[in-house]
Design a protein that fits this description.
Largest sheet of chain A: none
Largest sheet of chain B: none
Order of helices and strands of chain B: HHHHHHHHHHHHHHHHHHHHHH
Strand content of chain A: under 5%
Number of strands of chain B: 0
Number of helices of chain B: 22
Oligomer: heterodimer
Helix content of chain B: over 70%
Shape of chain A: elongated
Structural class of chain B: mainly alpha
Helix content of chain A: over 70%
Distance between the termini of chain B: 40 Å
Largest interface: A-B, 65 and 75 residues
Structural class of chain A: mainly alpha
Chain lengths: 180, 441
């Protein structure tokens, strides 16, 4: 699963950096050379979709998503396990829908050779962001569910598992998710 | 009936610890399945994709990036040092420092918990050292950090403008400008509450006053040095707000310029460690972005159901059927939003409540700008209301107090904020005065 961390992080880093540079270059060009290449918007907003869904997968892995854990916290061992499994099925179900219908969408766009309005790029390449992200989210959901069930058994704190506390903001985000 | 299925399944999922984003989408899927079977699931995928692919929303990752950079290069520390040099030696000076820095940092970051994390690490220990009890320190920082979503640039206002924009013309620029005065008023309220707690604790003999007096007055030279060191941070809001209101940038462009500015000054401040840190900064920002954006994505499906299934109009008919007294309805709306804000995050709250409440507000002739601002104050208060306010947990861990202690410590600040909330709700000119004066549409 280490390799998955690496893949997600690299995708996120490159995507974010690209969005930033393209958008900034566009402002410079418009204000200095009076030349707007706003057609690149098409790329940046689709990259934002990629950033969102791949980031969501990493967020699942790092327990970063906001949720309400009060009832979970006071539940007993068995109750905790039931909640973990039920909530995992719900999340996984959603990601499965996104994966299946996202794949259908991509397949359809390939079939009719749909291109983007401004740049004429094949739309399906950009749309791939959704099924790809959903697949990663699905894998991550299964991964953390197994991890959490083990955690309940050994009665460890979830905090201890996520040893990635590089900064205060991140620590805070994990805290928020664990307790809220 | 649809309304009950939608909200009922949403609450049940939330209770079962399903993340808020997934709860929003799954409850929508359930409603769609009941009315159309599998046939309409494509709508879910479609909305979740297109709702994120918007140029306006690009402002969110950039403002997050700018805030994370500012935090990593120690700008918050420099701002705190500068504020300390100015007012730190006065009685209760640290309370003023906390509120000032929170307001200022809010003008950079745009997110509540991020502001708490950025300033709390230094200010909570400093307050405790100054004789304040840890729950007071934690409570003040938790509440001051929430001002972040009222003072521009604010991710909350961007989302409000997008959601409300489906029904009425409203701009991010106007909301940003409108948030300034109410945001400062909340700051003043928190300062007064902080001073009240300090004086009360002195009377009760649980405040160590001798410790407070240890900060001596800074010399002119020290003040100047602190100012120079704070310049990179002080310039950030000037660039963002100056750029937007000087008519040079759109909010999205201002955000990317702020992020680039941060990346460039980061290079000078961090020097050789820069590239190692840069990777971390981007990953951390990406993660924070995704947490917000996946809620935008899922909540859009929820809002679609609320609108297409006529849930919004049903609820608004019911409410207006009970009473058409504007002041009573405004009070009810505030109570509902305070409760909702205590349990769900601000972004989801906009997608759930704006489609329902905006038609009611329009019927009652409430200025949508005022609605946007008082709704945001409500949701800001939700960030530090027990039992689930996000800021409280951040502040509790930073002040080494438990959630019960900090819940008690935050009460005076909640009361002060609610008073300001009511003032802003019932005196609309406080909100509209500044944007109208400057002609910001």
């Amino acid at each position: 699963m280490k390799i998955l961390d690496y893949i997600e992080e690299v995708i996120l880093f490159i995507t974010f950096l690209t969005i930033t540079l393209i958008t900034f270059a566009n402002i410079l060009s418009r204000n200095i050379f009076k030349f707007s290449f706003s057609f690149t918007e098409e790329i940046t907003i689709n990259l934002l979709v990629l950033l969102t869904f791949v980031g969501t997968a990493l967020g699942v892995r790092r327990y970063a998503h906001l949720g309400f854990t009060l009832i979970y916290d006071i539940a007993g061992k068995m109750g905790k396990k039931v909640i973990i499994v039920v909530s995992a099925i719900m999340s996984a179900g959603l990601f499965a829908i996104l994966l299946y219908y996202g794949y259908e969408m991509v397949a359809f766009q390939m079939k009719i050779s749909q291109t983007t309005p401004a740049l004429g790029m094949p739309q399906w390449i950009l749309s791939l962001a959704l099924p790809l992200g959903a697949l990663l989210c699905l894998i991550r959901t299964v991964q953390v569910t197994i991890e959490e069930i083990k955690t309940v058994d050994t009665d460890e704190d979830i905090q201890a598992v996520t040893n990635d506390q590089e900064s205060l903001v991140e620590t805070e985000e994990q805290k928020g998710e664990v307790k809220i | 009936m649809t309304a009950i299925t939608l909200f009922g399944s949403f609450l049940a999922l939330i209770a079962l610890r399903v993340p808020i984003a997934a709860s929003l989408a799954v409850s929508s899927v359930i409603v769609l399945f009941i009315s159309n079977g599998f046939g309409s699931f494509e709508v879910v995928t479609d909305i979740m994709y297109t709702s994120v692919a918007k140029f306006t929303l690009l402002a969110i990752p950039f403002f997050i990036l700018a805030g994370v950079i500012m935090d990593h290069i120690g700008i918050s520390k420099r701002l705190i040092d500068f504020a300390q040099a100015l007012v730190g030696h006065r009685k209760g000076g640290i309370v003023l420092v906390t509120v000032l820095v929170a307001i200022f940092f809010a003008a950079i970051s745009g997110s509540g918990p991020a502001t708490v994390a950025a300033i709390g690490g230094i200010l909570i220990p400093a307050m405790i050292k100054n004789g304040y009890r840890k729950e007071t320190a934690g409570g003040l920082v938790a509440s001051a950090g929430a001002i972040g979503i009222i003072i521009p640039p604010s991710i909350a206002f961007i989302i409000f403008a997008i959601v409300a924009g489906d029904q009425i013309p409203i701009t991010i620029n106007r909301l940003f400008m409108a948030g300034i005065v109410p945001g400062i008023l909340v700051g003043i309220g928190l300062f007064i509450a902080g001073m009240y707690v300090r004086n009360r604790d002195i009377k009760r003999g649980i405040f160590n006053q001798s410790e407070e007096m240890q900060i001596r007055k800074s010399t002119g030279k020290e003040k100047w040095d602190a100012f120079v060191r704070a310049i990179p941070g002080l310039l950030m809001p000037v660039i963002i707000l100056g750029g937007i209101y000087g008519g040079i940038f759109t909010p999205t462009e201002a955000a990317v310029v702020a992020a680039m500015y941060g990346l460039i000054i980061g290079m000078f401040i961090l020097r050789k460690d820069y590239f190692k840190v840069l990777y971390k900064i981007f990953i951390e920002s990406a993660l924070q972005t995704a947490v917000v954006m996946i809620i935008v994505s899922a909540a859009s499906v929820f809002a679609y159901i609320v609108t297409t299934e006529q849930i919004a109009s049903t609820i608004s008919d019911v409410v207006l059927g009970i009473t058409d007294n504007k002041y009573i309805i405004l009070l009810l709306v505030n109570i509902i939003l305070l409760i909702a804000g205590a349990f769900i995050d601000a972004i989801s709250a906009y997608y759930i409540f704006v489609p329902i409440l905006l038609p009611i507000m329009m019927q009652l002739n409430v200025d949508p700008t005022v609605f946007g601002v008082f709704m945001t104050i409500n949701l800001a208060i939700g960030l530090f209301t027990p039992p689930v306010g996000l800021n409280l947990y951040v502040a509790a861990s930073m002040s080494k107090s438990n959630i019960l202690q900090i819940s008690r410590g935050v009460v005076p600040f909640i009361i002060a904020s609610i008073i300001v909330l009511l003032i802003v709700t019932y005196i609309p000119i406080i909100t509209t005065f500044l944007p109208d004066l400057l002609g910001v549409k």
